[in-house]
Specification:
Helix 1 packs parallel to helix 10, helix 2 packs parallel to helix 15 and helix 3 packs antiparallel against helix 4. The strands form five sheets. Strands 8, 9, 16, 17, 18, 19, 20 and 21 form an eight-stranded mixed sheet that branches. A five-stranded parallel sheet has the order 11-3-2-15-22, covered by helices on one side. It has a four-stranded mixed sheet with strand order 1-14-13-12, with no helix packed on it. Helices cover 33% and strands 20% of the residues. It is built from 16 helices and 22 strands. It folds into three domains: 224 residues, 3-Layer(bba) Sandwich (FAD/NAD(P)-binding domain), CATH 3.50.50.60; 114 residues, no CATH class; 126 residues, no CATH class. It is of the alpha/beta class and 517 residues long. The longest helix has 26 residues.
Length: 517
Amino acid sequence: MAIGPSAGKASSSGGHAVVVGAGLGGLVAALLLAARGMAVTIVDRAPGVGGRLRPTPLDDVSIDAGPSTCIRPDLFDALFDEAAIDRAMRPDFRRCDVIARHAWNHRDRLDLLADPDRMRDAIARFSGPGDARGYDAFRAEARACFETLGAPALARDVAGDLPPPRFDLAAMSTLLGGGSRERLWRALGRHFGDPRLRQLFARSATALGSSPWRAPAAIMLASHLEEQGVWTIGGGEARLVALIEAAARVRGVTFMTDADCRAIEIGTEGATGVRLNGGGYIAADAVVCATDTGALADGWFGEDACTAVPAIQPGDRSLSAVSWAFTARTGGMPLARGNVFLPRDSVAEFRDVLAGWLPEEPTVMLDALDRGDDTQPGDIGRERLRMTIHAPAEAEGRSLSAAELRAGESMALRRLAACGVQLVDCSEVVMTTPADLASRYPGTGGALHGRAMHGWSSVLRRPGPRTRIPRLYVAGATADPGPGLTQTMLSGRYAADSVIADRGHDAWTPPLRRALA
């Protein structure tokens, strides 16, 4: 079976692109390439689209894979503007006042607030005026990190590879060079005397699957991004994926699910198409690999394509997680949408995880997916919950045992109880482990986010959209600019921009220019 450029409904005069992987990055790349005149076929080994955003089915409900929040919803608007998608087919966003609720025990609780003035006042009440002043200094440093590293990445041009032309290399050298190459945990110690605040703001690293003791201080730029606003998505991640899929279908993208790509074919001029298990072949003028970049490097798409991006060694992978999806009635401590229950000793927690074990006293993330900022306990009844703890990626093939996983669940529930959370009338629980992730997503080794952000140079080591092989591009959460809904969407945009630019067309459109200005 051969499928040529006529596979899509869009005009084939712009050539034919194949996108491997129907996660968020792949869907966005497919949508934009089709909107710019290419015929596009998207293939995925799973029975449906969404990749890691596919929800967990549970009884008569489904539970999102994450908290369904994002930054910069205006960039999603720019995406739909460029694809000329009607307003009725766009997601609804609602800004959060409470980014996450944190608790250490029954008494010690602190909300991370989007409003910096309110946050400063809350810190002053929580741990004193000295730490409130430290918060201002932390914000200033986080902003400087963002302006040096984050802003150029979000507003890169189609050149693709880091550092893009808009990087201020002198400022980057000052930020990252010499004595400034400190780790995040130490940098937080310069600003906060209260170790609980160091734990709270270490989320800059932990949200990326990295240890605060190994992550560079520059990673605090994520806190500046959160300060600009965090939004929930009406209908959750599944709704966002469904709308982008629908937009891509309107634009003529051909979808092939249950289609496992066996190899990306490489010719003298670069990528020429993909071969499917079962013998099918799809010719292409460009291929976007929107799976984990580790799958490409590890040879899952053939030996000829494995040199496209650098391989990630097992010791360089990000952390993983164990999560439990369930429904329950809650009582005791009032929950926000995102909740974090912190242990007394984070040093011991990350020492355990980096050594390949579940922590004896874990940080527990509890996402209450039916809640908003103004939700009262009486409004909810039974609600959808996802409980998560940090875990090692599969270490040299070692999977966590059933006994370890049972112990991890017990430890997580004890942490919730110690902070005053009551779970009543729980449903059956669906657990997801690092081994599950490794099986579902080849090349990940069970890691959540590809390469860990450990060491100052890691900020610059995520693959850009172009690879070492012409006409072969990458997108997804493990490509630049990294994990997160908005970042993954941008990875798909960068890949589409690069494809179009390399084919001699203008990739930058007015909606994007306005949004990134």
